[in-house]
C-alpha cells in the first residue's frame, strides 16, 4: 500500500481548510438572507409594526435615492473620518500609555487604582464635559471615540507587557541590555498578538464613542441622521443609518484582519 507523501497530506489539509471556509461562508450568507427575508415578511404581514421597523425594501430604496442625490455621502464621510481618527488615536495613545507604565514600575503602581476607576466609569457620561471643554464640533466627537477606547487599550496592552516570559529578559540581561532594549527586542514583539486583538475590540469602541458624540452634538454624520430620523418619526432613515454603520464597521474589522495577517506573515 502506497504511503501518502508530505505533499499529498499538505494538499489534503489545504482542501480541508477551503471546504471549511466554504461551509462557514454558506452558513453566514444563509443567516443573512434568512434575517432580511424574515424582516421583509414580518413587515409586509404586519407581524411587526412597519412604521417602527420599516422593511429591507424601503431601506434599500431610501439608500438608493440618497446615494443617487448624494445627500448621504457627506454624512457617511464625516462619520467614517471621525471613527477612523478616534480608532487610530485611541489605539496609539493606549499603547503609548501602556509603554510608559511598563517603563516605570512606580508610576504603574500609582496609576493602577485610577485606571481601575476610569475603566469602571461609563465613559459616555463624560460626553457633556468633553463637549463643554472642546466645543460642539468634530474635535469633541473624535475625543469621545478616543476616550472610550484609550483606557481599555492601556489596561490590556500593559497587562500583556507584564505577561511576557521573564526568561526573555533574563537572557537579554545576560548580554547587558538596557531596559529600552528589553522592550524593543522582547516585550514589544511578544505582545503584537495582544495589540492586534485590541485593534479588533477598538473598532467597535470607536464607533460607539463617535455615534454617541454625534447623538449629543453633531449636525452631520450617521449618528445625527439616527437622531433626526427619530425626531421626525422616519424610522426607515434610522434603519438605513444603522445598516450603513454595520457595513462600514464590518469593513473596518476586515481591514484589521488583513493587517493582522500581514503582521503575522512579516514578523513570524
Summarize, please.
This protein has 268 residues and is mainly α. The chain has twelve helices and no strands.
Characterize the structure shown.
The chain is an all-alpha fold. The protein is about 85% helix and about 0% strand. The chain is flat, with a radius of gyration of 24 Å. The chain is built from 12 helices and no strands.
SSE topology sketch:
Elements: H1 6-44, H2 50-53, H3 56-69, H4 73-103, H5 105-120, H6 127-134, H7 138-162, H8 166-174, H9 179-190, H10 192-217, H11 222-231, H12 235-267
Helix pairs in contact: 3-12, 4-5, 4-7, 4-10, 4-11, 6-7, 7-10, 8-9, 10-11, 10-12, 11-12
Characteristic key phrases:
268 residues; mainly alpha; 12 helices; flat
Major β-sheet, in short? none
Shape: flat
Write down the overall mean pLDDT.
88
**What is the count of helical runs?**
12
Helix fraction bin: over 70%
Give the N-terminus to C-terminus distance in angstroms.
Answer: 38 Å
Structural class: mainly alpha
Low-pLDDT runs:
none
| Radius of gyration, whole Å | 24 Å
The proportion of residues in beta strands is under 5%
How many E-type strands?
A: 0
Order of helices and strands: HHHHHHHHHHHH
Specify the oligomeric state.
Answer: single chain
